[in-house]
Structure formats: C-alpha cells, structure tokens
Amino acid sequence: MSARWLVDPGGAGDLNNVNNIIYAIQELGLECVTQKYKPFDVTEYNFFLDSGPIVYYGSLNCYKDAKKKRPKWFPLGWNNWQALRCQSYFAHWGKFLVSPEYGFFLYGELIRLQDFLYEVFSDSEERIFIKPDENDKLFNGQLIARGRLEDWMQIENSYGAIDPSALCMVAKPVKIDAEYRFIIADQKVLTGSQYKADRAFEVSPDYPADAALFAELVAHSWQPHPIYVMDVARMVDGNYRLIEIGSVNCAGYYRCNIRLIVEKMTEIACREWEEWNNGR
C-alpha cells in the first residue's frame, strides 16, 4: 500500500522546502493533501478516512494538532519527544557533544543561580550558552552575556509564559567553524547540507565526507527514531562534534536532497505501518 502525505504549507521555516517536497511527492505518484494550520481557529482534517500509512511534513504545531485529532493516523511522524530531549540523547552521545561539560537547571532557578552559572560555564567574554531540554523549541538556544540574563528571560516570557519547572541545558560557549545538517535514516547518512560557515548563514549542498562519517559514527551506537535530523559542527581545530538532533517531520532541509528524503520517509512509513498493522 502506498503512503499518503499531509503537508502544512507553512512548512518548518523554508517555503522552498515545502514546494520541493510537494513536487517530490507528486513525482512519486503519491497522494498529497495540504492543510494550513489555524492556531486561533479550528483546523479540520476531513480526509484520509480509510486506513493506510500517512506521513506528515510542516510546522510543529500543526503536527501536534493533527496527531491529537487523528490519533489513528500512523505513523504520521517520528516525534518521540522523550527521545528527542537533550537529557535522553546526551545520555548516549555525551562524549560527542560540542560542549561535553554541561548542566541541567530549572528555568525558574536561572536568575537565582546566575552567579554560580557564570562562574562555572562562562567563556572569556563572560557568556553562557542556554538551550531548552525539550526539542519543541520552547525558546531558541542563546548566548547570554553576564548581566543580561534577566533581560533575556523577560523577552522570552513576553512571547508566552515559560513554565519555571522547564529544564534548561547550560554549557560553556564554543567556537565553531562550520555547521552541517544530516538526515539520518536507519543509522546511515541519507543526505546532508552545509548551513553555516564562519559564523554566517551559508547554505550549500556540499559537505565534507569526514563530517558524514562522524555523523554515522554517532548514529551507529543508538537511534531515537529510524529517521531524524542531526546537526554536526566542524570545530576550529578541525574536529567534528554533535550539535543536536531533531524531528525530520518539522525541520528545514536547506540544500539536502529532498527527493531522497521523501522516498525514505515514505519507505519507512510503509514498513512501520505493515509491522504495526500485522501486530494488531
């Protein structure tokens, strides 16, 4: 049975990705429905009413909404939020991280602990790096200079109150020469793209073979999902380190080979649907 696709036209940050994903789905002869997510209204999903594998691409909010309203759509996406938390994959890959010395702290405790945090984790410019433990972009990872922590938290809270019990990862900032995004499928690099070089946004379909080999070295020991996104850094000393991982369903692909991604997501969805359906 062929997989069907649900695509949020709002995408995951890059509208060119959305168009190319839709073209790839159509070239493969697969059914594709686009559904715009309405955050302040009711979004209906009155399609795909019969059984069969379904795959999603687009915004995180639309994915969560569709998953809640159509729980029988399978697999829809690969978003085990527990597996994608820093604390989960750090436990397996800590030695590969760009900042292998880190700590987890409650968001509501950051201000009270700031003297301690800057004493332990600050760099020569008196900055610390903070990112959420969760993978659903509670806030973006940031470099925060000493004396600016409260200002930063006020800005973040202005977009919506952040739960004070939310865990944050704090680490010493590091210098990175270039960054690459890889799509990992069944513990192998499927395709990749450079997205940053010399601390500037610089997208290219090219990436060093050694970066891909490093990504596969990391992926070989454990996997959160059969397919996911992995970001790798080339450090200023030429070594490669792990930045983070994320959902393949809700990520930008930059200049990755989108046809390969669509083919592999479709293949894995069909495989998992058969396994799930036969096991019921």
Can you walk through the features of this model?
There is one protein chain. The chain has 280 residues and is α+β, with helices and mostly antiparallel strands. It has helices at residues 15-27, 60-69, 86-93, 114-121, 149-158, 209-221, 258-279, and strands at residues 4-7, 32-34, 53-57, 74-76, 102-106, 127-132, 142-145, 167-171, 176-185, 188-197, 200-204, 227-235, 240-246. It is built from seven helices and 13 strands. Helix 1 packs across helix 7 (258-279). The two termini are 17 Å apart. The relative contact order is 0.17. The mean pLDDT is 94.
Q: Could you provide a short overview of the structure?
A:
The protein has 7 helices and 13 strands. It has 280 residues and is of the alpha+beta class.
Structural class: alpha+beta
Question: How much helix is in the residues?
Answer: 25-40%
Strand order across the biggest sheet? 11-10-9-12-13
Radius of gyration: 20 Å
Number of strands: 13
Q: Mean pLDDT score, rounded?
A: 94
Distance between the termini: 17 Å
Low-confidence stretches: none
Count of DSSP helices?
7
Run of helices and strands: EHEEHEHEHEEHEEEEHEEH
Strand-residue proportion? 25-35%
Could you describe the largest sheet, including whether it forms a barrel? 5 strands, antiparallel
Shape: globular
